[in-house]
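Deliverable D2.4 — example input (structure tokens):
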């Protein structure tokens, strides 16, 4: 899978949203913005604002009064981020002995 530089340039905050939406989609689709805001410990208006930005970038689809779902590109990038985080976790635990 090739990840473009544009994707890699997303802010950590935007990446965090994509990861959390991907995680929540495993339980509930679409993900209500109130649930996303609760999980990220932010206001609903902040969640709404970021989701609108991510929608214009093509990472998710916002359905008013229902919530958000990841697009194929959004899911692909969320999977890439998750894999990268897990690799770091393995390194930190197995190589550096952190818990």
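Example output (designed residues):
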């Amino acid at each position: 899978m090739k990840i473009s530089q544009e994707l890699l340039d997303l802010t950590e905050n935007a990446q965090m949203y994509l990861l959390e939406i991907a995680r929540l989609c495993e339980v509930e689709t679409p993900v209500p913005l109130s649930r996303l805001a609760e999980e990220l410990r932010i206001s609903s208006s902040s969640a709404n604002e970021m989701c609108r930005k991510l929608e214009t970038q093509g990472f998710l689809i916002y359905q008013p009064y229902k919530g958000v779902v990841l697009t194929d590109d959004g899911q692909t990038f969320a999977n890439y981020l998750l894999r990268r985080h897990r690799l770091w976790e393995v390194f930190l635990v197995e190589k550096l002995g952190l818990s």
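The beta strands are 60-63, 67-70.
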